[in-house]
Specification:
mainly beta, Jelly Rolls, Thrombin, subunit H, 13-stranded mixed β-sheet, six-stranded antiparallel β-sheet
């Protein structure tokens, strides 16, 4: 039965209610209450019941003023009782069947309270208890939708076991897709009893929202001659580990390990098989194709059978093509690539050739290739493309480019100690340093190049070097260009920085900074480590180790590809002044990171344990205490 107003409820002792004003509205009702210290104030409402029936008492309630309780267990309740509630006894001493505590916090949001019990008598009392509230304190209450029911859940009727809550069967057959025929249980539908969405009178079923946990990255295995990689392939492997090493103009390979499974999917991991591996590139999921070159089967110390595979990027399939005689002459980069890929191949150009390529290099140059494979012509020979024309190699499955800057590279990364950097090795190497180069060729031409800034504080004396170049025909301009390129590679200290990263992807407060971890080979970045006096801007990432399973960067190497930036005390004009837009953005980011780190430290002891002692020492006691 619905009870819209509690004005007719009985007070267990009217003298205990100093104030009891109930205002009835069409929507929300308001009650003002003030009790005395002479006893326990309660109101109740009797409903008829039978032993064994389930009695349910429901009310939506809130207290805009809030209230305090100081007696008993310091809580007030709605309850079901089997006898009249006394005004002289605590609630725990009464014949209570069940009770639900009320929220004492100040709030204007109505909250539903429900109490359910099995009746033991022919009358059950719905009780609202005020007895533990502070005496002589006025409390405001709001309530709505009071109801009470007494009914059987299950009973034996006319010799049959029946359930009174089942609705009548539909007059027409069930219809719908097969999932709708599944029986379900939901506390808010059909009074919590089993139901089907096809039953008449039951609201349309809406499945609860689901959070799908991402699965571990999977590797797809294909045949050695496969050309299309949209399907699943021969097998799908869940790797135990998988690392990809990518080096600028160099190695690009994957090493992964998997269990020898009972379905024998591992047997497809054989030499020459193609595999598709998921990689996060600049924050986006991409797939790269690799060809297995080595496969090792082993048994570990625990008796588990495993297979380890080493695979090269598909780009290296080009090494199967041999060039007999090819001589691109005074061509730009893209013209030279087109010439190399259309002239002088052993056995002729294949009818099916699925690689595409490009270059934006405008420099004109000449090279001669005899009896070399395509990879050597591009990367490995003395006269290879990157030596003659220069360029950074970008590889994306069966496409590659050799541009003046690596295709899709960025210039906005920052690596800073105490944010995402855990280890750093910084190396400056003068082993190959040359300040005066004497060069000659096989036609008797000579050429000298000097560094005009030597001697200096940085380089106190000249260091001589010699290089010899050989050509089939005399070309002085080419000889001078080659000598200059040789000198540029060695005219200053080589810088190499190896950085290892922390995995902060699970730290919620670092979500805003995760884009900064998306470093790729060829990107220009800033490296900052105050304690080691390392501040390098516009350095280039020359290699990267990526963990496919954890989907994070493990290690990168940063160094000088052609022209390097030297340390700030030596050549300040090559280092940012600190006033540029990039520097100001970097400074603002550093402040955000400092504040985020501080809030994590102040949250808990475990938060402090994430950071080095030197980082904690940068904060005041007040900051670490969250003030």
């Amino acid at each position: 039965m619905a009870i819209t107003n509690i004005s007719d409820w009985t007070k267990n002792d009217a003298s205990l209610f100093l104030t009891f004003e109930n205002i009835f509205f069409d929507t929300t009702n308001e009650l003002t209450y003030k009790g005395s210290s002479a006893g326990y104030e309660r109101i109740y409402f009797p409903i008829p019941s039978e032993p064994g029936q389930t009695v349910t008492f429901t009310v939506k309630f809130c207290s805009p003023s809030g209230f305090q309780c100081s007696y008993g267990d310091s809580k007030d309740y709605i309850a079901l009782a089997s006898d009249l509630p006394s005004s002289t006894q605590q609630l725990s001493s009464l014949p209570i069947l069940a009770k639900t505590p009320l929220d004492s916090a100040a709030s204007n949001n109505l909250r539903e309270y429900v109490v359910t019990a099995v009746a033991t008598t022919t009358t059950t009392y719905c009780v609202i208890d005020f007895g533990y509230m502070l005496d002589n304190v006025t409390v405001s209450l709001k309530y709505v939708d009071i109801s009470a029911t007494a009914e059987y859940k299950w009973k034996i009727q006319d010799g049959e076991l029946t359930n009174t809550e089942f609705i009548a069967l539909p007059a027409r057959p069930f219809v719908g897709d097969s999932p709708y025929t599944m029986w379900r249980i939901d506390p808010d539908i059909n009074n919590g009893m089993p139901y089907s969405p096809l039953m008449i009178g039951v609201p349309q079923y809406t499945p609860p929202p689901m959070t799908i946990q991402p699965s571990r990255p999977l590797i797809h295995v294909y045949g050695s001659r496969e050309k299309g990689f949209d399907g699943n392939g021969y097998a799908i492997i869940e790797p135990i580990s998988c690392e990809i090493y990518h080096e600028e103009n160099g190695i690009y390979e994957a090493t992964f390990e998997a269990y020898c499974d009972k379905y024998q999917k591992y047997t497809y991991l054989r030499k020459q098989a193609l595999v598709k591996i998921p990689i996060i590139y600049h924050g986006e999921l991409k797939f790269q194709i690799f060809r297995i070159r080595r496969a090792i089967r082993r048994m570990d110390s625990e008796g588990n059978y495993r297979i380890v595979a080493v695979a090269q990027h598909r780009f290296y399939d080009l090494q199967r093509y041999l060039i007999n005689d090819c001589r691109p002459t005074q061509l730009k980069g893209n013209e030279a690539l087109s010439w190399i890929f259309t002239h002088g191949w052993y056995g002729g150009i294949p009818l099916v050739f699925d690689f595409t390529y490009g270059s934006n290099i405008q420099r004109r140059s000449t090279a001669y290739y005899e009896n070399v494979n395509l990879i050597a012509a591009l990367l490995g020979e003395d006269q290879c493309f990157i030596n003659r024309w220069g360029g950074r190699l970008y590889r994306d499955n069966n496409y590659f480019s050799l541009n003046s800057e690596m295709e899709n590279s960025r210039s906005s990364g920052i690596i800073e100690y105490s944010y995402n950097l855990t280890e750093i090795d910084f190396e400056e190497d003068d082993t190959e340093l040359i300040t005066i180069l004497e060069a000659s060729d096989n036609f008797g031409n000579t050429y000298e190049i000097r560094n005009p800034n030597v001697p200096s504080e940085d380089i106190p004396h000249h260091i001589y070097g010699y290089a010899y170049f050989s050509y089939e025909t005399e070309d002085v301009a080419q000889f001078h260009a080659d000598a200059q390129a040789y000198f540029d590679e060695r005219k200053q200290s080589r810088v190499n920085i190896t950085v290892r990263f922390a995995n902060l992807s699970e730290v919620e407060k670092y979500k805003q900074f995760l884009e900064l971890d998306s470093f790729e080979v060829g990107d220009k970045i800033t490296v900052y480590h105050k304690e080691l006096d390392i501040y390098y801007s516009n350095l280039e990432i020359i290699s990267k180790t990526y963990d496919v399973v954890a989907q994070r960067t493990m290690e990168i190497q940063i160094g000088n590809f052609k022209n390097a930036i030297t340390r700030r005390p030596f050549m300040s004009d090559t280092v940012s002044s600190g006033n540029s837009a990039v520097d100001k953005s970097t400074s603002a980011l550093a402040q955000d990171i400092y504040a985020t780190n501080t809030s994590i430290m102040a949250a808990s002891i475990s938060g402090m344990e994430i950071f080095a002692i030197s980082e904690l020492e940068k904060r005041t006691i007040a900051e670490l205490e969250g003030e």
